[in-house]
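Sample entry (235 residues):
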Amino acid sequence: MWYGGKLSVLTPELVCMEDLIRRSRKWKYFINLTGQEFPLKSNFELVQILTAFNGTNDVEHVTENWSPRWKVAGPPPFNIKPVKGVVHAVLSRAFVEFALHNEKAVEFYNWTKKTYIPDETFFATLNHNPSLGAHGAYTGNKTAESFIARFKNRGSIPCAGKRVRGVCIIGTGDLPLLARSKSLFVNKLHQDFHPYAYDCLEELIANRTRDYYYGRWTFDTSYYTQLDFVKNKVG
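Predicted structure, serialized as tokens:
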């Protein structure tokens, strides 16, 4: 399915997903990142966490009313309840195939093109309307859901770096918190601001990879298997 329409943040994501589906049958999860993010887990740890996810998706949403964003588009198709979230997510392959090829998903995508900032609506809505049947969609209580794809300090905790539009740009003083974080990636880092933060995170990942290879590091996935969105999902 080719997703037409004007160029946006969302459409290139879907085009890349379609290319990945065609090119390989081996991958099981799609994770899209920005240029200002960095992994907090080694490749081994990421594989263990995604295995623990067991087909679920990590798609952030907000509970506040954002209806002015899509009011201009009129009622959404199939009585879908739009949800505001973010475009960057952790999506299972089955969810990606649903988003690309399911008739309701395609029609909803076309509806979002008439809304404001559709990239923050599409994935979140598919994942939080379980009646649509998207694999791994969330079926639990939205107020109980937590998201671990990204560590992003929007103001709830102190920032040792600096804030830009309310978001913490990571500094070296934030590293102890990041080393303990359960999140998969951190957002945001700037290469020209506290560059040693990059170096230290690289060393952390390298050390964990080395220690696992020599049997000095073990990784417990029990925290991830008990996440509410892992226990309450479609499929």
